[in-house]
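Incident log, structure service

09:12 report received: a user says their structure output differs between two submissions of the same chain.
09:20 pulled the input from the user's history:
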Amino acid sequence: MKWKKVPEEHRQAFLAALPDEPDVDRKPMFGCPAAFVNGNLFAGAHEDRINLRLDAATREQCLSQGFSPFEPMGRTMKGYACVPSGSETDVEFLRPWLRRAYEFGRSLPPKPVKPKATPKPKR
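09:34 re-ran on a clean worker, output below:
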């Protein structure tokens, strides 16, 4: 199954709404914009959706208020929710939600830094 490319206006809104913190690491994940803190993914754009990693109580509250589960390839990603459809380009709407996702991501234990793989010798 081929993924749809993230619309440019979603990409721009996502990047503009991310918290301006020195520990936010912006890098692509599977070709889509994503944001990490301490090695933990806390938000991303995928196809035409913006997804957030939230604590369980906040996520359940969001799901009852128009957010939807994040289901790439038809599988629900536990701990994530997508912002309501139509709000993906609303920077003012996204900003506080991305801040909440960032704060939750920052509260998680840091991921250990993996050493770079050494190239295998050619035969």
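09:41 both user submissions now match this output. Likely a transient worker issue. Closing.
09:42 reviewer note: The CA atoms of residues 52 and 97 lie 8 Å apart. Helices lie at 8-17, 56-63, 91-107.
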